[in-house]
Amino acid sequence: MKYDDREVDVVPYDFDQERDEAYTQMCVWPATVVEPDEVDKVQEWFGEMFELEHPIHIVGCVLTKPDWNNGKAVKDTGGRCDFFFFVHGADIGKFAVPRLQFGIRWWEDVVGNKSHTIYPSKFLKQAREEYSW
């Protein structure tokens, strides 16, 4: 995939993988690219940075849609890569405040602020089935 004028191989989003029900909080980290060969490093970083007892459950990366004006896509909008993942319920307390310095958002806040419309409808449909809001 082309992203930020370079070719990158991102972790595609996948809601088909089995997720333990204890992973209760879906998060989005805007403008964050995670490539398949970086998954182990990302897991390690989350564990160390937030002192998590459980690894995050990676959903994957999603490209945003462009803005529209008068029925036309607005130039230079959309195409941002956002990284989605779940946090284990036991780790939410440790994660809730420190995440803010990195711009990581709770998914229900994104939806509540009507910011979810920038994501493709296929992703939103699957996200709603997996993690209702």
Task: Tell me what the structure shows.
The chain is 24% helix and 24% strand. It is built from four helices and eight strands; from the N terminus they run E-E-E-H-E-E-E-E-H-E-H-H. The protein has helices at 39-50, 92-95, 107-112, 121-130, and strands at residues 2-3, 6-7, 23-29, 57-63, 68-69, 72-73, 81-88, 105-106. The strands form three sheets. It has a four-stranded antiparallel beta sheet. The longest helix is centred in the middle third of the chain and has 12 residues, at 39-50. The radius of gyration is 15 Å and the shape is globular.
Low-confidence stretches: none
Give the oligomeric state: single chain
- Report helical residue fraction: 10-25%
Distance between the termini: 30 Å
- What count of helical segments does DSSP give? 4
Q: What integer is the average pLDDT?
A: 89
How are the strands ordered across the major sheet?
Answer: 4-7-3-8
Question: Strand count, sense and closure of the main sheet?
Answer: 4 strands, antiparallel
Fraction in beta strands: 15-25%
Helix/strand order: EEEHEEEEHEHH
Radius of gyration: 15 Å
Number of separate strands? 8
Secondary structural class: alpha+beta
